[in-house]
Amino acid sequence: MDPSRKRPLDDGTVSPAKRPKAGGPDQERIQKMMAEARAKAAALAAKLGANKVTAGSPTPPLGGSAAQTAAERLAAMRSRVANAVSRSTAASVAPPSRPVSSTPSFRRDESEHDDGSKARGGLDVGLHPALLGDTADAGSSRRGKNAMMPKFATTMANRRGDIGRGGKPKKQLDLSAPPIDLIDPAKNPYHDPNIAAKSLQPRRIPKSLHFNPKGKYIEQANALRRQEALEEMKKRIAAAARKVGIDEDMHADKAFAPQEPPSIEWWDQGLTQNSTYEDMDIGALKVDTEDSIVTIYIQHPIQIEPPQDKHIPPPKPLPLTKKEQKKVRRQRRAEELKEKQAKVRLGLEPPPPPKIKKSNMMRVLGEEAVKDPTAVEARVNKEIRERLENHLKTNEDRKLTKEQRHEKLAINQEKDQSKGIQCLVFRIETLANGKHRFKINKNAEQLGLTGICIFSPKFNLVIVEGGPYAVNKYKKLMMQRIDWKEEVEPQEGGEEAPTEQLTHGADIPMLQNRCTLVWEGELKQKGFRKFSSERCPTDAMAKERLERGRMEHMWTVAKGAVQKEE
């Protein structure tokens, strides 16, 4: 067997047992073949260094003859790896070719310098390029190289899947859904509207970031400050106007302005389609329709008692003369006496003791009065005193306590107010006299009236509201009982009482003072909770105070009441 066809050892030498003799023809043949291999490897390395071959181009064959050595296969593998790395990374540079040593120690030196990157497997075959990349990274990191590797596939094994025949890239499969406008459900026999409605919905487009422009919130804050300043300025102007009295008669005619008629009355609204009387001209009426309120049936509405009937006082009994009153009393007492006598006869009650008086003393107690008239007289006087004491005691027991009197008065006032709320408005020129002010307040409190008394330099206004009985009593007080021209009584020192000209209108002489009934009528409900007195220097303040009870228009009425009389 030819020793040259034997597989060499790992170090490139031949087994010592089968080593040929030195200087033979086989040794010369081996040297010649090794020289040819070195020349081919050098030429191939020079060609690859000058022209970078594409990754998809086939590697030139190294020959399959028995003369090809492991050094040639190693050089070819190195060139292929260098070309693949140079194609995948733009920053990488093809490694320089190494000269092939003529000595068998070439493989030993390469393994020492390349470490794990040039490691070989069994049968003297190099590692796969995919595994070679990992080992190269580890070796480079150990050598201290901080090269940033790409984050995409760099090996030829991963790249061949995207390259088709002829070196052209393969067409990727489009997995996106077709546009909704191009889908025709009528032509698709497999179309399911329940599924397609959800699967063909357009994808939600994420919202982009919108940054607020510079100064946006500063402008908003400035706008709020300007608004607050404007409101404060309006308040100051209104306060100044109240003091000066600019808006004195601004809203004088507002309370008396008639309301505009409605576009359609409520009883005709259900008979028209557009709720206007113009529907009658175009014939848009709901009379013969199914939803019309006009039917063949007769509607009997529930009868409601008129509200004014509740305020009608009960009829008074027929008045009797003095003679008739005595006759009725005599008949009543006779009937009571007969009933009492019948009970005594039946034994239901004991007989009453005889009523002894000085006039019948001798007739009732004949013998006893004759025997001892002094004792009988003393006995009669004692019985007379007892009867008087019993009478007074019975009257005291029938009297009501203070709490019961107040309770009875409140019940009577409530009954009086249930008949209707009456209102009176008086104008008084001056209230400088303290007696007048006291009578106005005290009688309103005692009669359970509510309202207000306004003191003003021009004139004074009194408004009271309550039941008919109490209002009638107060009206007699104001119009008849009080003497409005009564002068102010002087004090002990000889000086007159303070007139309080600014609040009570005391600059008007008492001889010109009078009380005028401005308005009298019935109200739907009360406007004040109690009777109070307030001082209002200006007309604006008086109207503002009366506005709480919805009586601001009464100030204007009272202001022009005296002018009309004059």
Structural features, described:
With 566 residues, this protein is an alpha+beta fold. Among the domains are: 3-163, no CATH class; 261-296, no CATH class; 346-399, no CATH class; 419-489 and 497-565, Alpha-Beta Plaits. It is built from 19 helices and five strands. It has helices at residues 25-50, 70-88, 106-114, 129-142, 156-159, 193-199, 216-244, 279-282, 322-345, 361-364, 366-371, 373-398, 402-418, 434-446, 468-481, 501-504, 539-546, 553-559, 561-565, and strands at 421-428, 450-455, 460-466, 515-523, 531-535. The chain has a five-stranded mixed beta sheet with strand order 4-1-3-2-5, with helices on both faces.
Alpha-beta content class: alpha+beta
Determine the mean pLDDT. 76
Strand tally, please? 5
Helix and strand run: HHHHHHHHHHHHHEHEEHHEEHHH
Largest sheet: 5 strands, mixed
List the helices and strands and how they pair.
Blueprint: H1 25-50, H2 70-88, H3 106-114, H4 129-142, H5 156-159, H6 193-199, H7 216-244, H8 279-282, H9 322-345, H10 361-364, H11 366-371, H12 373-398, H13 402-418, E1 421-428, H14 434-446, E2 450-455, E3 460-466, H15 468-481, H16 501-504, E4 515-523, E5 531-535, H17 539-546, H18 553-559, H19 561-565
Helix pairs in contact: 1-2
